[in-house]
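Archive entry: two folds, one per protein. Generate the first.
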Amino acid sequence: MSTDCLLIGAPASGSGKTTITLALMALLTAQGKRVQGFKVGPDYIDPAFHHLVTGRHSYNLDVWMGGEEDVCRTFENQSQDADISLIEGVMGVLDGVSSDSNWGSSAHIAEILGCPILLVLDIHAMARSAAAVVKGFQMFAGGASIRGVVLNRAGSSRHAAMVKSAIEQETGVSVLGYLTQDASIVLPERHLGLITAQETSEESRRKLEVAGRLLGENLDVTELWRVANQAGDQSKPVVASRTHLPRLSRRPRVAVAYDRAFNFYYPANFDLLTRLGAELLWFRPTSGERVPPEATHLYLGGGFPEEYVEDLVRHPDILADVRHRVLSDRVPTLAECGGYMFLGEAIWSNGQRFPMVGAIPMETEMTPSLQELGYRELTVLSDGIFPSGSRFRGHAYHHSRIRRSSGLVSGYEVSSARAPMAPEGHGIPNLLAGYSHLYFPSAPEAVRTWLQQGLA
């Protein structure tokens, strides 16, 4: 590890990790620092906001999907030319895959990277009790990495000073600063979290700048750098060398749908594609852009197509073009979640039917309740774009379900901690589609096989 770093954790979701992380990024970037962002876990939305603020792609650090070596390698590769790396945690700082250990948690990531933890504490309606919360984390396994605290939703400067005094007196951990409760810096949300960075307005951009300035007014930046520099005192993991996968002799050209409706992708997936020799061709279906004619492969990621169905149906020629490329040209295609819905016959939203591509014999509908959430392990059922038996790790999170289908051919089997193994999606020789988001580094050889197709 070649830079200073901080992992921004919290006792629970909703404490302000994202707010403080983005405010720190905005503050340090405004000071001319090269800030590299990371996100613990499989989230797609927060990293996009990191990118919006820092101008650098933010990467997921996920032990379950990629393993410890992938986490260490990703961190080392992406942070080497940054002045500081800021890692946004997930859920509570000790919450991981199991309730019996820290494995897969933010604390686990901090441990294997030797990164100090900056604890975000929501002190709304709390004073001296805040010290007990910090003390409790100190006493738990993994709590020793907590080297600083930032207070969120302070009622006033006096309130923040009271809490700071109690925490530092009882725990010895420095309180570096605080943000007051301020509606002017609250970002808009929807059912999967924040409105995505690709959809954000200038007002949201302004809010992030304001958040950085407000935090800067009440933050000891010198102490922040001292805490971040403690990463240099930690032992560093030994990163195993990456399994060498030779670049393809011919260049695949992968068309990637990327716009307001389709933007849930792991940057590590794109890195693997380009490392194998692929050229990425971006197109925006909601803006009426066709699949680039030179494309040899097609990648339709997740996002919010249901929010932009009117934009999509406004371009029937684009829908027909995608259908032709998948069904007639037989371009090797991967579609995940929103891309899966897009390839169906229709999306139902607010009781209205919107025709889609029609390459998959199904219709989907939005529901008020969450249909699926969590990690997934996938086994490909038959030879197609990936070899039969290929095993991926990934994640699913969606509010839609299949309303009607006829003739779906299950593409893979999915197992999870909450449900027994079950078939999912649709798989034909040149198409694999389903609700799961795949993490490509979990099965790089299978990804290489996909890219080899369509090049003969």
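Generate the second and append.
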Amino acid sequence: MSEYREELRASARKVVEDAGTPASEGAVWPVAVELGWLLTTLPEARGGLGLGWGDAVVLHEELGRGLAGAPLLSAALAAEALAGAENEAGASWLERLLAGEPIAVPLADGALAAEGDGLSGRLEAVPSAAGACALVAWTEGAEALWLIPRDAPAVAIETPPYWDETRAWCAVELRGVPRSAAVVLARGERAARLVEALTVRRALGIAADAVGGGAQLLELTLEHLRTRRQFGRPLALFQALKHRVADLATELAAAEALLHEAAAAVDAGRADAFRRAWEAKLVATAAYARCAEEALQLHGGIGMAVEHPCHLFLKRALLDVELAGDPESLALAVGDAVLREAG
């Protein structure tokens, strides 16, 4: 790992640790904006740093470690969509985003329907949409990529209960939003390319959140096993528990390796980047969920689970599994991609 990437990781970790666990949106988002994290993957021509997702995933790993609520992934996706627009329509919105006004992108699969002169549809798992100035979404078949202002008519934002309490989840329903009230960022082939890029990077961000959360939870579990004693011995000396923890460490190491390989494939523009991103998302979220379930058991005897952050990691892990496509659908997509590549 490069020296710059290590410095980026150390800076992000300090921000998240200072904010506590879970790190609230209010504590992390202003600092993230001030430090220029949204500029990481933006091209230099757009005032960005021109770095790749190999660097960006480091930030998302650290946010995952601290169960941070800041909508950095959603905002980073919005920034890429605005920077890649086929016209200058999104330039002023990009400036607003970089100045700290969140623009939301759904982290769950879903698309809008263009019906007559209106846009309709319900989008789930939209981070911090209630406080966002706009929403970026696409129509079915990725025919067009749209920016819908928060105050556009016929936009309804709900805050239904989600298992994951560490992020401010919303559902956004568009009930025939007039196209004249929205901004078209791209159409046709350009829109399809942008939507594919966004979905690939969304998968990387979720995988990074899972890798970071799993790593932190494993550290908490190891510390518990070292300090808690049973029959006069630390739990860490029991062979059965050693094996369980070793299995978790192996799974998380494999997930981290796949994540960084996928990010490198995306940055290099490789043909297999799409498949690599979905593989990383599948493996990382599965490893995170298994680590969270095991950690809850390995922390047995500490009292009420609500008194320990274990349950927060578990709820976040289980939601990460379902974001950006359910595991079965993604596994089938990866399998199809492998067969196509094999010829």
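Annotation attached to the second fold: The chain has a mean pLDDT of 91. Residues 244 and 294 are 8 Å apart (CA to CA).
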